[in-house]
Fold:
Amino acid sequence: MISSEILSIIGPALLAGLIITITHAPLGIEVLKRGIIFIDLAVAQIAGLGLLVSNLYFNKDLTWLSQITALLFALMAAFFFKIIESKIKSQQEAIIGVSFVLAASISILLLADHPTGGEEIRHLLSGQMLFISWNDVFIHLPIYLLILVLWFLPINLNGIGFYVLFSLAITSSVQLVGVYVVFASLILPALTALNTNNPYKVAWLSGLISVLLGIVLSVIFDLPAGPILVVTYVFVTILIVLIRKLNNSRI
Structure:
């Protein structure tokens, strides 16, 4: 039997990881289709910059304010990237990369004289999954449900709609799991689903296995959940791709 103490630690992290991977799978597949692989990394970093600005210059206890600030930063980035996509698509990936580096550099500068600046940066990048609470998860749960409902409705999300949903997802996810896991959960399951007959199912399966394995290993070896999750996402992706190649299967 799992003790209530252990469940209270791994339960929220596990639920957050599963919800995020289910929501990110279709978004990641769309990112690969559009050829804008690093947009998730850039938007996550920019949303994280919004969180830092809110926590440093406003009342960090006002969760709703942090959420709104991070979302505004993410939306501004998404709208900017949408404009770049329509105007100078050939340079989009380069501009996305520069935007990521710029946002990361500004974050470091803002925390340069902060007594816990190094810790803040680490949390932003790798998250604190095993320290999130049920309340943290339930605050963001309606956002993920809204994204999934809208995504699977028969409506056109080819325009700015995709970027809005993408920004909503990234804003919540970066607060729960950090920039690294956001990138891994978007891109790696999507890679396993390339050229398959059921891309969503394959991506979901890959993500769910990665999250379960990562959380279990994190608890067993007492290691940070964020970096472990990135490793398990990579491992599971390689494993599934190899199995598919050996079976010559489109699943």
